[in-house]
Amino acid sequence: MMSVFDDAEILQAMLDFEGALAAAGSRCNLFEPSVARSISRCCRISKFSISELSETACQHGTVVVPLVHHLTKLVSAFDERASNWVHFGATSQDVIDTAMVVQLRKALVILEVDVQRLVLALETLVDRFGNQIMIGRTLQQPSVPITFGQKVSGWKSALLRNWNRIQLSASEAFSLQFGGAAGNLSSLGTDGQRVRTALSEILELNSPDDVWHAHRDRVVALCSSVSIFVGGLGKIALDISLLLQAEVSEVSEKIDANRGRSSAMPHKRNPVNCLIALAGAKRAPHLLATLLDAMPHEHERALGGWQVEWVTIPAIFEIAAGSISAVANMCEGLEVNPKKMKYNLDALNGLFMSEKLMLELSKKVGKATAKEIIDAACNEASIQNTHLVKILQSDKRFLKEFTSDEFDELTDLDGYLGTSSFK
After folding, report:
1. Is residue 216 assigned to a domain?
2. 198: in domain
3. What is the domain-level CATH number for residue 32?
4. What are the backbone angles phi and psi of residue 157, rounded to the nearest 5°?
5. Residue 12: pLDDT above 60?
6. CATH number of the domain encompassing residue 384
7. Dist CA 31 CA 81 (whole Å)
8. pLDDT in tens, 308-357
9. Is 183 a member of any domain?
10. 102-111, 250-259, 401-410: which range is least confident on average?
């Protein structure tokens, strides 16, 4: 992902725009095809010095000025007439915005590979351990039993929703920007729309209903969707990081003796994949905030607000790539410990059944009385470190309301999984 947004790749995308613009002009009969060929043959980054472009860009606030200047010199060296048509009708923002969109399209292809890996890994976990009963946790405290499949299916559902949101946003954002100096292609006169249509076809980008150089909603919406996606990956990483704590140990990462080492404590293996995803989830929202803050652009071209996108958008996508790769790697090698899940559940001495027991008892004696009886039983079970069922079996107020068979049914764990069951 970082290579997609490195200097050479971004500059090559800008040169691809210049080559496509020349081809569009030829297609629209502004000049003969030989002119387009002369321009296109020079649109290779290998013919440019990135360090020199960088030095000169500082003087102009954009790299497009020195890029076009050097491209014109290259073309002029062997076809002076063609050099008059370099960058014709375009402005710097057309080049930069369209190049960024082209690179974002490549970025999504990279993300999709790891999305598919993660989906498959999660489906495999559900197939293998979907019906494994574990304790559900709310506000980081034990609540009621759930299945591991419920937890993993939740991760997968959110992942697919978030990826679908990215794709929908991308379908709007992947649009050509071509408006010339102030957005109306005035230098092309009546040929403007024809050239715009041809250019969008050559670059395989949407031809928008209007220029968007001062309206950033579609690009920001895509980055917002990617940031939400990163947040969803952070949720998976946070859940796993809590489950793999030594005191819980319900899951563990695939053992790698050389991964996650502590510099001071030989026994430690730090959850590096969780670390990467959680760091990304904390960073992405603030980068997105920068784009949202910069959305009000002055008139037909922003001063500062547009330029801040150049480093912020790539950073969001690089975070997304790191996060999805880390979570996919982690889930592909995730080891589930059913014995520890049962152990942690059993260690609660049946207290997780209190909700069901109270609700069923309330049908017999009313809610207030039922709460009083079950509250007292839970307190006693905690004090004595005894199973809740044992306490209730000695409570005449409870026993007189249920037959032996009813009591067994009430305390049956499989009957208390609700929609969490995968059977």
Report:
1. yes
2. no
3. 1.10.275.10
4. -60, -45
5. yes
6. 1.10.40.30
7. 10
8. 999 999 999 999 999 999 999 999 999 999 999 999 999 999 999 999 99
9. no
10. 250-259
Confidence of residue 256 (pLDDT cuts 50, 70, 90): low
Query: Cα(199)–Cα(332) distance, rounded to whole angstroms?
Result: 43
Same domain, yes or no: 369 and 333: no
Structure tokens at 206: 């949407």
Query: What does the alpha-carbon distance between residue 381 and residue 378 come to, in Å, rounded to a whole number?
Result: 5
Contact between 103 and 9 under an 8 Å Cβ cutoff? The reply is yes
Cα–Cα dist 242/250, whole Å: 9
Q: Name the token pair of 153.
A: 């299916």
Q: What's the average model confidence in pLDDT over 364-388?
A: 94
Q: What is the CATH number of the domain that holds 317?
A: 1.20.200.10
Q: What is the pLDDT of residues 380-405, one digit of tens each?
A: 999 999 999 999 988 889 888 888 88
Q: Same domain for 158 and 264?
A: yes
Q: Are residues 332 and 374 in the same domain?
A: no
* Tokens representing residue 139 in the block: 């506000």
Instruction: Please report whether residue 326 resides in a domain.
Output: yes
Last residue of a domain, one of 323, 344, 365: 344
User: Using CA atoms, how far apart are residues 417 and 404, in angstroms rounded to an integer?
Assistant: 22
Half-sphere exposure of 187 (CA within 13 A, CB side): 15
Query: Are residue 284 and residue 352 in the same domain, yes or no?
Result: no
Q: What is the mean pLDDT of residues 228-257?
A: 91
Exposed (0-12), middle (13-18) or buried (19+): which is 235, by Cβ within 10 Å?
middle
- Count of alpha carbons within 13 Å of 320, Cβ hemisphere only? 34
**Which range of residues forms the domain containing residue 284?**
93-177+207-344
Q: Determine the average pLDDT of the residues in 50-75.
A: 95
Number of domains in the chain: 3
Residues 238, 304 within the same domain: yes
235 and 98 housed in the same domain: yes
